């Protein structure tokens, strides 16, 4: 008769092996104990040192910084008497520093918990090797194994920490600012403390106040601007590209070069030159009008004409980009399609609608969405041409041509209204992210469908 083999440790435990379970439980309570149990003494010592440092940080540094994050300080700076009876400036809590220290403490604590998890997983994995009767790798073998199997993760560790502290941390900090009263003149540290105010900043910004009136009007102009700027540049580029590609047009290379020059010149130089050209008093354009006996127009000082001027200048800068992209697409469209359409008696408009435009849209739909999102945050064109002016007393720290992004700039650098600026930044992100994600997923190029289906 065949003898039945003895059950392994894994089968005896009903799934989770005894060594693996024991090592994981030990490491769960004290980092490094599981490694010592698995006879990995150097690795266990390293984990144990991390454990000691982490505990000291958790019980000494973390509570103080978390308390500062919650309270944002208890004592503001002020004048008082020193031991000699002289009036001196006494330092106080800096609410913003306390918020930053609290966020750093939280992120560091989360990193410590993640290392703890890695410690438990490592102990469990090596315990399973012991249950299977396999040797547990020593420290040198573990290092070589990490180099072979986890080398990409090791390379990404430092950039990942950089992203965590220099990208995610500032974003979270900006979000938290929106829930405080951090603004001039009454809540600027170190003279004054900053307090948590919940959603009151958002309610003031969205409902029944001068902030709300300013926000909704600036938002309306921002959307109108983004739509008009995107449509004019996009279809203007298509129009110019199709004109250049027409049969019989000579010197195509020269025309491409001429139309790309506005894009090749640094944008801030072009915009500053345009600002001088459209100057209502001394600008050359109005000077020529006056030589012809016509009154010049208030290009940049009247709300309506300022917006018209901005759109026109943006077309001059933006059309070449669309033109270059569309020229490349037009050369890739099979000529057989146009020949077949001509045989069927299709008009020029029908060929454009049924052949040219579907190809162009398929290739440029994601770019069109990106241009719309970029125009919402088109800081350069607005600020370098008009700085958001002309001013109006109906708006709070905004002009009639301000976009949300230029208004946000004025709120922060010019007026120190940081909480409102942060709330505006959050709303801009929500709007752009929602619009972009929704429309990207609806494009045919995203779905990878054939253009002729």
Q: Which architecture of the largest domain would the CATH scheme give at its second level?
A: Orthogonal Bundle
Which range best describes the helical content: under 10%, 10-25%, 25-40%, 40-55%, 55-70% or over 70%?
55-70%
Residue-averaged pLDDT, rounded? Answer: 85
Separation, N- and C-terminal Cα atoms: 69 Å
Identify the CATH homologous superfamily of the largest domain.
MetI-like
**Largest sheet strand order:** 1-2
Number of helices: 19
Q: What ranges have pLDDT less than 50 throughout 5 or more consecutive residues?
A: 1-17, 449-453
Structure write-up:
With 453 residues, the protein is an all-alpha fold. The chain folds into 2 domains: 9-76 and 87-198, no CATH class; 202-447, MetI-like fold (Orthogonal Bundle), CATH 1.10.3720.10. Helices cover 70% and strands 2% of the residues. The protein has a two-stranded antiparallel sheet with strand order 1-2. Strand 1 (78-81) and strand 2 form a beta hairpin. Helix 4 (41-71) packs antiparallel against helix 5, helix 7 (151-177) packs across helix 18 (418-442) and helix 13 (303-332) crosses helix 15. The longest helix is centred in the first third of the chain and has 37 residues, at 95-131. InterPro entries: MetI-like (IPR000515), MetI-like_sf (IPR035906). Its main location: membrane. Part of the ABC transporter complex MalEFGK involved in maltose/maltodextrin import. Probably responsible for the translocation of the substrate across the membrane. Residues 219-439 form the ABC transmembrane type-1 domain. One of its GO terms (molecular function) is ABC-type maltose transporter activity.
